[in-house]
Please model this.
Amino acid sequence: MIIALNAIVFVAMMIGGAGATGQGGAVYENLVLWGPFVVQGEWWRLITGAFMHAGVVHIGSNMLLLWFLAQEMEAPLGREQFSALYAVSVMGGSLGVMVLSPISPTLGASGGVFGLMGALVVLQLRAKQNPWNSGIGGLVVLNLILTFAVPGISAGGHLGGLLAGALGGAIVEPLPWGRANPKVRAAIIVVIALALGVLAVVAAKALVPGAWDRELLSRTGG
Model:
């Protein structure tokens, strides 16, 4: 379902006139995550930005990784807990963007994907498994290196998603363990996701004006 939603939005972006980098067109202008519009009350961008992508390679790589992670996590956690994990990861990523780059238009599902990786690391540690042996530890490290080495990648989105997903991973419970109602745990994570969304709006209102001032100073050589 998540992959289908991303695909539908991507097609809508292309039909709506988005360019090769995903920029432009009505869908981009109304849904991309951008702090100045969040400040004006367009809070939905905290969610919709995570379902938009800048080209075929961008959406393809994110959806491929999402698919592999879902194969590992959705069955043992159940649909409710898995969906809640993705939601809290997306909101954590949006909060990270509002903190680190509030005036940079941001799009992509990588915050949610990073969150699932963080959750899987925590779940493996709780199950006394070695994330390095499973490969997820190396995958996280590699993606973090790429985050800071490649220009144009949202560090805030990746770090925020990773941390929020790890927090969610500490709360969810694999269904075979059966120590608590998974729906209750999913509800707790959704509440946390909503709280992160509120914090993202607060961060945008607090940080966007200063970020604009710094941008104007840099452009004028001040």
Observations:
- DSSP finds eleven helices and no strands in the chain.
